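Annotated sample (chain length 217).
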Amino acid sequence: MKHYKERIHHYRFEILFFSFMILMFYSLFLPKLSFSIALLLNVIAGLNMFPQKKKKLVVPLTIAGALLITAFLGAFIPGAWLKSMGFAIFVIFFLFVAYEVFHQIYKSPKVNVGIIYGLFCGLIILGILGALIFTIIEQTSPGSFSNLSQGPGKVNDLVYFSFITLLTIGFGDIIPLSSIAQRLTMLFGIVGHFYTVVVIALVIGKYLANSMVEKKS
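Output written by the structure step:
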C-alpha cells in the first residue's frame, strides 16, 4: 500500500496535468461526464501534489473537504451565497496547489519528464488564476468585459479570454472595458511573456547544467 502511494505521488505532475485536461476539455471528449466529477478528480490530483505527511496535508485536506461539502450542498440548496462560498474556497485551495507546483519546479535539482509536465501545469494554473480574477472583476463590476455569454457560459468565456491573453493570441472577440479589467489584462499578457521566456529558460539552463555535470562524471 505504501509503495502504491509512493508511485502515485511520484507521478504527481503527470496526474495533475491530465486532471486539468479533463477539467477543461471533458465536454469535448467525455460529454457524459459531469463538471462535479471533473472538479473532484482535479481536487484529488491537487492533493497529491503535497508531501505525503500528515502534518503537511492537514490544511489542504481541510480546504478540499470544505470545497466538496459546499459543492454537494449546492446541488440541493439553492442560493448565490453558497456558490460564492464554494468559489472562494476553490480560489484558496487553488492558490495552495499553485504555490506547491511552482515551489517544487523551482526546488527540483534535475529536469525530468515530471518537471516538463509541471511546466505545462504551471501555464494552465496561470490561465485558470487569470480566469478566476477576471470572474471576480465581472461579478463585482458587471459589464467590465464585452460580448460575454449569460449564465454559466460567462465563466467559460472568461476562461477562454484568460488563456488567449496569456498565450498572447488576442482574437479581440472579448474586450476588457473597465479600467481595472484593461490594466489586469495588460499585466496578464506580461506574465504570459515572463513565464514562457524566463521560467522555461531557467528550466532549460538547469537541464544543461545537469547534463554537463553528468558528462564530467
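Annotation: Residues 1-107 form one domain.
Annotation: The CA atoms of residues 63 and 93 lie 6 Å apart.
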